[in-house]
Amino acid sequence: MKTSVTIRIVRLGTPRSDGEGLRLGTVRRPPRGVPKAHIAARNFYDVWLPDLAPSEALLKRIHAGDIDKDWRAFSRSYRAEMKRPQPRRLLGLLAALSQQTNFSVGCYCADEARCHRSLLRALLAEHGARLS
To answer: Whose CB has fewer CB within 10 Å in the chain, the N or C terminal residue?
Structure first.
C-alpha cells in the first residue's frame, strides 16, 4: 500500500512533524544569531531556497506599511515575482517532487494568513503539488 506523499507548509523554527521530510526555508535571510551548523538542528530548515521568498524591496514595502491594508498589493506583487523563470522552475520542481516524497516549505512569520507562505501554498497547488 503506497502512502500519500505531500508538501507541508510550516513555520520555520517549530518542531517537526512525523514524516515531514526535508524542510525548505523560503526566506530571504537565514535566522539571526543561529550558526549555520545549527540551523537544521533547531528546526529552521535543511535547505535554503531564497528564490521563493519575496524580494527585499517587497519585504521592505510590506513591513513599512499596514499589512492588513496592503495585503492585496503584496499578494499581487509576490505572485508577479514568482512568474519569473527561476521561481517558476522551482515551483514546478517542488510540485513534481511532491508526487514522490514528503517535504515541507516554510517561513518565520507567526500568522500564515499574512505571510507569503499562504500564497506559496496556493502557487504550489496551481502547479499541481500535493499539499497536506
So the answer is: N
> In this structure, what C-alpha cell is assigned to residue 6?
505531500
Q: Where in the chain are the domains? A: 7-126
Provide the angle, in degrees to the nearest 10, between the axes of the packed helices 116-126 and 85-97: 70
| Low-confidence winner among 41-55, 66-80, 113-127 (lowest mean pLDDT) | 66-80
| Helices 56-64, 67-81: inter-axial angle, 10-degree rounding | 170
- Beta strands across the sheet bearing 103-107: 7-11, 103-107, 22-25, 47-48
Q: pTM value?
A: 0.91
Q: Which of 57-66, 75-84, 117-126 has the lowest mean pLDDT?
A: 57-66
Is the pLDDT at 2 greater than 60, yes or no? no
3-state secondary structure of 35: coil
Sequence-ordered list of residues with C-beta below 8 angstroms from that of 3, at least 6 positions apart, any chain: none
- Which residue do the cell numbers 499541481 mark? 128
Q: How far apart are CA 96 and CA 25, in angstroms?
A: 18
